Amino acid sequence: MEISALQKERAAYQPKLPKALQGAVKVKEGASTKSVDNQEEIKKLFPNTYGMPLIEFVPGENADKKKINIGVILSGGQAPGGHNVISGLFDAVKNLNSENRLYGFLMGPGGLVDHNYIEITAEFLNQYRNTGGFDMIGSGRTKLEEEDQFEKGLKIIRELDINAIVIIGGDDSNTNACVLAEYYAAKKYGVQVIGCPKTIDGDLKNEQIETSFGFDTATKTYSELIGNIERDCNSARKYWHFIKLMGRSASHIALECALETQPNICLISEEIEAKDMTLNQVVENIANVVAYRAKQGNNFGVVLIPEGLIEFVPAIGRLIQELNDLLAAHGADYKDLDKEAQRKYIIAHLSKENAATFETLPEGVARQLSLDRDPHGNVQVSLIETEKLLSDMVGVLLAKWAKEGKFDGKFAAQHHFFGYEGRCAAPSNFDADYCYALGTSAAQLVAAGKTGYMAIVKNTTANANEWKAGGVPITMMMNIERRNGANKPVIRKALVELDGAPFKFFASKRDEWAKETAYVYPGPIQYWGPSEVCDQTTKTLQLEQAK
Fold it and tell me: Which of 178, 359, 365, 481 would you label with 53, given CA atoms 20 to 30 Å apart?
């Protein structure tokens, strides 16, 4: 296997661990917990894994040489640091007992169901330490929801003498982990299930999960690219750059990148929804900034756009909700119709208000909203070119203003979508350390006999030695939401809080950034050098923890 000079040097990096995980570990249990909402419904659905206490690891006296074998699964989209979770898991398992084994199920949860696996050895693992991507064992989006899947998985678990399954994934993957843990607990199979919080979108967080892994690296990667574009923009002085960023369900990535780079405009989906703004109002706000800067002789600028923006425009959001139910209930009647017949079918079956909204949308956007959903029942918003839609609408409005004598500048747009560029980047020092600690915590949760927990690491703006590791019951984070036309127990997504410190700081600065050219150029991720360059957490975390 050919490796770059950077990867060779990076392989030697030894991730830092919290003090509590550096030697023998003792479990400290807190108070019992309850779900964030719908407590009675969640308790009824998860009677064997509901109400368990929070777990904190503290230094112990004697190391437990417990014999355990673990299976690990990477689930969902890639995020920087997944390999280090597996590295931390492997090292901790081997430290407990050198005879312990770690098995990787290939290509996601489907590997468990289909009995597709490899044994992870030290020699094999060493090729992937501190690297990005999920290529060590691959990932997939198979959802673990059916009893038949659970029983098929049990067969290979028994065959390999596996004690526990660790599922590394986002909110949906960890919801599935909770369902699997409950099933095996109810059947008294003696199989533990532990989750790890992964998503570069940053929407898997709460009081117990300060950040999901990969967010730090991805936002630093995007911020480098945005900074490069800002520098180019300020050099050429003739383009407005519309940049769409990953983040379907929340605007955390866009907000963090705005805090890092200080663009002229950053749209926050949650704010647009809260203010009940129309698409035309969003466009007018952008056009006003373009016109102001043109008067100053600045016919250039940068606009950041969250990937899921279109879903947060209230009128479109209401349309999507009804479409989801319609397609879930009548998809069979609909799918074989030609394009024009599908459009007519949808309009005929929508409420009057939503039908009117549907008819006003550009054909391409309307078409995308009416296509098949992703495996989680979501509109595939990444396929909607929101950045082009907005720039086109801004251009039309500015042309109208020009005829009215309200605009005499120039407007030319460039378009970008940053998504895959950040998903598999080599993890930052923070993500390398954080993920290694998560993997170690997951192993210790297994060693402690726990199931239905998610590994957590807190106090992450402090020195890694002072981080606090432990576990949170997955049911504590769950509520009931409507998915695919039915009510489902799911982990509540964390949206940008408009009264939170990161957004409030951004809101206090954005008018200044809109009018002035206040760009910041973060540059590439640094792995060696002063701590203030190499080990800084995100602006979001720093503001949230007031450090």
Answer: 481
Per-residue DSSP letter, 474: G
User: Please, are residues 455 and 195 in contact by the beta-carbon 8 Å criterion?
Assistant: yes
- Verify that 383 and 434 share a domain, yes or no: no
- 379 and 438 part of one domain: no
Q: Which residues pair with residue 471 across a beta bridge?
A: 55, 455
> How distant, in Å, are the alpha carbons of 66, 247, 310, 311, 540 from that of 251?
43, 6, 12, 12, 12
**How many domains does the chain fold into?**
2
Q: What is the CATH number of the domain that holds 164?
A: 3.40.50.450
Asked whether the CA dihedral 176, 182, 186, 191 is positive or negative, the reply is positive
Burial label for 6, CB within 10 Å (0-12, 13-18, 19+), is: exposed
What is residue 464's DSSP assignment? Answer: G
| Structural domain for 302, as ranges | 215-419+499-544
Q: Within a 10 A sphere around the Cβ of 480, how many other Cβ atoms?
A: 16
Give the strands of the sheet with 164-169, arranged side by side.
Answer: 25-32, 53-59, 468-473, 453-458, 192-197, 164-169, 70-74, 102-105, 117-120
Catalytic residue at 408? Answer: no
The CA distance from 455 to 18, in Å, is 14
Whether residues 303 and 438 share a domain: the answer is: no
Does 2 map to a domain? no
Number of residues assigned to the chain: 547
Q: How far is residue 313's CA from residue 215's CA, in Å, rounded to a whole number?
A: 25
Residue 26 lies in a domain: no
Are residues 211 and 202 in contact, defined by beta-carbon separation less than 8 angstroms? yes
Residue pair 113/151 in contact by the 8 Å Cβ criterion: no
Going residue by residue through the chain, which has 547 residues, state the pLDDT in tens, using 9 for 90 and above.
788 999 999 999 999 999 999 999 999 999 999 999 999 999 999 999 999 999 999 999 887 788 999 999 999 999 999 999 999 999 999 999 999 999 999 999 999 999 999 999 999 999 999 999 999 999 999 999 899 999 999 999 999 999 999 999 999 999 999 999 999 999 999 999 999 999 999 999 999 999 999 999 999 999 999 999 999 999 999 999 999 999 888 999 999 999 999 999 999 999 999 999 988 899 999 999 999 999 999 999 999 999 989 889 898 888 888 888 887 777 777 777 888 888 888 888 889 999 888 887 777 777 777 776 666 556 666 677 889 989 988 999 999 999 999 999 999 999 999 999 999 999 999 999 999 999 999 999 999 999 999 999 999 999 999 999 999 999 999 999 987 778 899 999 999 999 999 999 999 999 999 999 999 999 999 999 999 899 999 999 999 998 6
| Cβ partners under 8 Å of residue 443, min gap 6 | 70, 88, 89, 92, 93, 96
Question: Final residue of a domain: which of 459, 481, 515?
Answer: 459
CATH code assigned at 503: 3.40.50.460
Final residue in a domain of this structure, among 437, 459, 481: 459
Confidence (pTM) = 0.92
